[in-house]
Design goal:
By secondary structure, the protein is mainly alpha-helical. The protein contains 19 helices and no strands.
Length: 387
């Protein structure tokens, strides 16, 4: 912990009975610290390390990232059955645990012999602890569904969120699932919304992306558009933007992939080679891409002349290498990319609407072709039934 080192403080003696309200403990290793009698209300942070060796005796932990952990430790120390119950929850069949949750929190008849013995406080703490584990999606969804039931107050919910954020902010799998499901089931809860906003600036790119997607789903992004846009367009999120652009381009087809990368190859493109948003509508870059695509088609044509199977021939289409068509394809990519589509629609509504209309017309034509093929196939089967 930098403060400890700078002030030459002893973690065993100098933090006892201290006033540490609202302190940010991010990146602090608090193992072997003694916070006996300290005021830690509102303590928070990311990548905070603490365990059984951290002493919180008689400390005020209300609204802090330590509160849930201390409740768990107290339960396991005082209730000999708690550990066995927790193993049942963690390792048990997802459908059996799901049935227990529904029975417990919907006043049904509980069938599970061990878990049935858990009182309301014990069950609540065990469920909260399990939420921070990398568990089966069925269990996680059910736990989120009953989130209000397993947290007795808004303060307890806040403490649970702070605790998970503090200790698992680099575990992209846990946080990503947490954020996605929480935003769907509890998107109107102010504590959940605040938590998601905090995650938009988390260390892990995967976590940040999940948080940005969640902020779109529950309206937070558009409600705070300028601030959220600036955060998403920050330099440290460039890799996220490129990944989204590449994924969207790949879904639309290889010509779209060609239009969003400098080398303009039609296959094998890495996210590092993909243009970032500020580059997509740059005239000079677009011209370079057009030249690269023409060169690519020339190379394909040369291989065909040298005996490549005519079935693999790529039809030459002069439209696909004109700068205007490249711009159109880039716009269509942005219209399909998560988060970026919202920014694009707000920043450049005319170009965004035109791209959406083109995509819609193309989808209608493709659907018409599929329907027409299905009808012709059906008529053919009726005309020539199998013997």
């Amino acid at each position: 912990m930098e403060i400890k080192d700078a002030l030459d403080l002893d973690p065993v003696r100098d933090f006892r009975f201290s006033d540490l309200r609202d302190v940010d403990f991010s990146n602090a290793d608090l193992r072997d610290f003694d916070f006996t009698g300290a005021d830690l209300r509102g303590g928070h942070g990311t990548d905070v390390t603490f365990d059984e060796s951290t002493i919180f005796a008689d400390a005020d932990l209300q609204g802090s990232c330590f509160a849930t952990h201390v409740r768990e430790m107290t339960l396991f120390r005082q209730n000999p059955m708690a550990e066995r119950m927790y193993r049942v929850l963690l390792e048990g069949d997802p459908m059996e645990i799901s049935s227990w949750l529904h029975a417990r929190y919907r006043n049904g008849r509980e069938e599970h012999s061990i878990l049935r013995k858990a009182d309301s406080v014990t069950a609540s703490i065990l469920c909260q602890k399990m939420l921070s584990e990398d568990i089966d999606l069925t269990k996680r969804t059910d736990l989120f569904y009953f989130l209000r039931s397993i947290t007795s107050s808004p303060m307890e919910l806040r403490e649970l969120l702070l605790g998970i954020f503090a200790r698992h902010s680099t575990n992209a799998s846990v946080i990503e699932k947490f954020t996605t499901i929480a935003s769907i089931l509890h998107g109107k809860d102010p504590n959940i919304r605040t938590f998601i906003l905090q995650l938009c600036d988390a260390r892990s790119p995967k976590v940040r992306l999940a948080a940005f997607k969640a902020s779109i789903n529950i309206g937070l992004f558009m409600r705070n558009f300028q601030a959220m846009r600036d955060l998403f367009m920050a330099a440290h999120n460039a890799s996220i933007r490129r990944e989204l652009i590449l994924e969207s381009a790949t879904a639309l087809g290889r010509h779209h992939v060609g239009s969003v990368n400098r080398s303009a190859t039609l296959e094998g493109v890495r996210a590092d080679d993909v243009l970032d948003v500020p580059d997509l509508f740059d005239d000079t870059i677009c011209t370079q891409i057009a030249v690269a695509i023409r060169r690519r088609h020339d190379e394909i044509g040369e291989r065909m002349k040298q005996g490549v199977d005519s079935k693999n021939r790529t039809p030459e289409d002069p439209r696909q290498v004109s700068p205007s068509i490249i711009f159109e394809q880039q716009a269509e990519v942005l219209c399909n990319a998560p988060v970026l589509s919202a920014i694009f629609a707000k920043d450049d509504p005319h170009r965004s609407m035109s791209a959406q209309q083109r995509l819609s017309r193309r989808a209608e034509r493709e659907q018409w072709r599929r329907d027409d093929l299905a009808q012709r196939t059906m008529r053919s089967r009726r005309r020539y039934p199998r013997l």
